[in-house]
Amino acid sequence: MFTNYESKSVVDKMTIKWKHQIRNICAVIVVIGLTLAFIMPGSAGFEKTKKCMICSDGEGNAVDNYHMFFEYDQPPDARWVTLGAETQGKKPEITVLESDCESTVIDVTVPGFWVADRRGNEQVFQELRIPEHTTTMEVGKPAVPTIHAAIAVPYNAEVRTRILASSSEVLFGYHVVPFQPQTIDAVKGDQEFAIDQAFYDADITYPFSLVETGIPGIWRDLRVVIVEIAPVRFNPCRDELIVHTHLTIEVSYYGSDRAFLRDSEEGISSRFASLYRNRVLNYDWLNVEERMIGEPGEPQYLIITHPNFEAAIQPLAEWHHREGMKTEVVAIATSDKDEIKELITDRYQQRNLEYVLLVGDKQYMPGYCWPTEDGADCLLSDYWYACIDGDDMWPEVAVGRLSVLTNQQAMNQVAKILAYEKEPPLTEWLNKMLFVAHREDAPGKYVECKEYIRTNIIPPQPPYVVDSLYGHVHGVTNDDVTAAINVGCHIVNYRGHGVTEAWEGWNRLGQYWSTSNVNSLSNGNYTPIVFNIACSCHFFKWDSLGEAWLNKYPGGAVGSLGATRPSARDANHDYDKELFRQFLEHDEYRLGWICNAAATYIITHYEDAGKDNAKMYCWLGDPATEIWTAIPESLTVVHPDMVPTGPSTMDVTITTDGTPVEGAVICLSQEHGIYTKRVTDNTGSASFTICPFSEDSITIVVSAHNYLPYEGIIEVYAGFPAVPLNPSWYQIPQL
What pTM, to 2 d.p., does this model score? Predict the structure, then answer.
């Protein structure tokens, strides 16, 4: 351990001077270190003992395997270095002090960091981690903790930064571990240790600047930029840390155009407002209008299907249309990915598009071959279709795919989706989760990732019950996975190695949980949501595990998430965590946007590795499926049974057990007439002014999170003359 870092002694200067000559003469260094400690008693004599005992494990904390680096916020052998926080493991406080069209001022307080000893290249290093953040990622150079945050900036403005205030302290006796190449989950065993020795021998401070900004990108409504803050800086020659415990940073905007929204935009969709609020640091300072999406004639949900499956997809399209998402189905036979992208872009430019569903296997509905960030490979991707505005990776729409080869497969998948969304089994299975982890390096790595989610993200109190099947445990087999799914579990989350058709060799027996295991399930209507956070399980060019989950009928899964190629391990860990944070902490329940939010997290924090992972993860299922987070209750809906043609008003009231339900979406629709929706207020009420011009009945659908949807009919009788009226009389209101 390190003690009394605050003072700098003669030993530091002597060690720096001798460093290049004696680094590899371990025995001599030990003798010199002990001798100096004796001559100069007190804490200062020991502050560089780590370097003098470079081939030792010091107090026994060093890990002998250099490849075992931080994969989590707090590894078991880590020690907390406090910088003023009373609570161990407290994450940084990042707040906006002020923000307008000229600048944004960010305040950062770092309460402490974790440190753990790591061995590599016959040296003992220290690995540092600030909770819930990552490090610099230049291979071979020091992995110094960094903080990343996305902020909205005005369109066309130049972005500059400066430090307004800072408080820092210097800590000695640290030899920060070099960042290693991103490990791919598909790669097992050790890798060659990477270190830029010339850099470590230099008398420099790294990173070179306290704050940097990335290249701005377009995230649907907003222009965003990632701000990278380096509260910890390191001098490798002096083994010296400069820790900024507090920073005040100004991000300034220069240029003639300082508007945060495009001129043609009238506001931000309420759907995206929640996403921005969770990811964009200064969103609440923008003072933009939020509105409900859904103008007549402008699709909110676009289904692009091969003609073979057009009839099979209609029930799903009709359901989403009735529940309040204007839906369009386009049947097209093409192998041209650009034609598909142009179709999506055209509907997106009408301002309302949120969801895109592709229907067909790759031979019927093309995927995009997206080059990796280094240009060395190509990744099969549907995420490319989501990135429309700007040359960046911020997703504008949520994309899903029903990867089917036959009309029957399409019908089966639609039936499972509708059953899950409208009438799931009302039992405790909806509160159960199954965590499966590969055995490798347990209880670290994959098991540690699952345990972090179980103990830090999932609420400790009911209703959630987590069953864990970890591959390093004796006696855990594929039969246990099958049994758990068959009796019902709502979320199945695997973390580990994968191949196209299986979870690869996950337990002590080396078993593969494969497509054949999925096909043998007998779970009926207990159809889970599956997160396969592993390599290649969704490579839908071939028969993949993800496709098996969806095509198994009855049973299987209602939706499956997985990667099409080998994926980076550390980014996978945080991607997995963010999936759960979205629906358990951030109130994001639509699966397509849960996936997109997790993608934006790793894009923000993991540079090229995060971008490549985001490209390759693919959601098989309906992107608009809303995940249940409790056993749903029934709604009591009071509305008129009949209304006349012509102008009239009507009230709708929503309650459950006599309690008003706020935020419920009510949609009224006619086959050839009105299409309008409202959101209930805190009294559970909403009022409509309608003008049906035909006697076609009105369908009313009410939906709210964790409530079974209500479907009813309102008859229309002849009142005023049944003539077409101005469409603006019955268009969807702006909320």
Answer: 0.87
